[in-house]
Amino acid sequence: MSTGPGLLFVVSGPSGAGKDTLVEALRERRATLRYSVSATTRAPRGDERNGEHYFFVSPEEFELLRDGGRLLEWRQYNGNLYGTPCDYVEESLTEGYDVVMKPEVNGALAVKAAYPDAVLIFLVPDRFSHLRERLLARRTETNEEIARRLEIAQQEMKFIRSFDYIVVNEQDHPEGAVRDLEAILQAERFRIHRYPDDSIRRVESS
Amino acid sequence: MSTGPGLLFVVSGPSGAGKDTLVEALRERRATLRYSVSATTRAPRGDERNGEHYFFVSPEEFELLRDGGRLLEWRQYNGNLYGTPCDYVEESLTEGYDVVMKPEVNGALAVKAAYPDAVLIFLVPDRFSHLRERLLARRTETNEEIARRLEIAQQEMKFIRSFDYIVVNEQDHPEGAVRDLEAILQAERFRIHRYPDDSIRRVESS
Description:
Oligomer: homodimer
Helix content of chain A: 40-55%
Number of strands of chain A: 9
Largest interface: A-B, 35 and 36 residues
Strand order of the largest sheet of chain A: 2-7-1-8-9
Largest sheet of chain A: 5 strands, parallel
CATH class of the domain at 8-36 and 98-205 in chain A: Alpha Beta
């Protein structure tokens, strides 16, 4: 009784909630999980590598992808363009791999519109006040950018009811959230609506 | 951000699918999970103990419970009465424990009617033909009873769409189904509808 092709998991939430670290830990634990690499026009930070953390593209290349309908979702943020190329996602799902992506909240909603079957997980820090600490700690944004991100985060919380799950990332126990995410990835496979009628008939008659 | 009181998990499926062994393994792995002991008028089998596997009661005691509205669901099967006393379930949920029960399929549907929030898991053997082997192997039923159970099992499969999850119990890898059940128990806690509005507002403002 196969559950069919792979499942699409969208981990989103306010910037600074800890998405990057958790998704990386998740990928290390599940060999059948592929990461959907985003395209962006922003410059690489720290040791970010092209094709691994992002596809770093020029504004012209980005527009070519977008206008050709090859982006699942896209958006402008802090003057840079971000988007999710759909080819890799769709190929992986068809081959039976699960795919995880971590777009911002608006992007997650766009993905759900394109793939109603996608599983949307909202990641929140255990206290909202920790967001500021995390953003400061990573030292990649100016104070103005941080203030702006916090304001956006407050707005994003309003879309929480469009998600399927809420997972709390506890500052002092990040391994807890990794375990919770892994349970969701595992459990979703068995939800009744993922079994097409013919797979159930096969069980009945086997 | 608390998800509130405990969750109720109902593991059901055809007789012989392996519910007893799996639920027992699950209880060993989760200290916060309580087992809802059923009442029955049938005689104990093998080393079954009163108050642990079942409450073994007389037909008169059973009727007293049932007519007093103290059974969540009840039914007659092979000439015996079975039912789920509700007091222990409700006390445990209120105290924040999760509760697992393993009624037959009709009972599971009755529990869902009483507790729409209950999580219903349908357990099936990897092959329907294994049901007969399992029933024969446990040597507790006559051939006529086994034939009757198999017929009932075929009927029960028709209610599979009323359940929330399907878990396949592979004959040769029962530990897989235990892990799957555990993932469901863990993941259900984070489903968006389990977060009341005020808990989400607390996150926003913390």
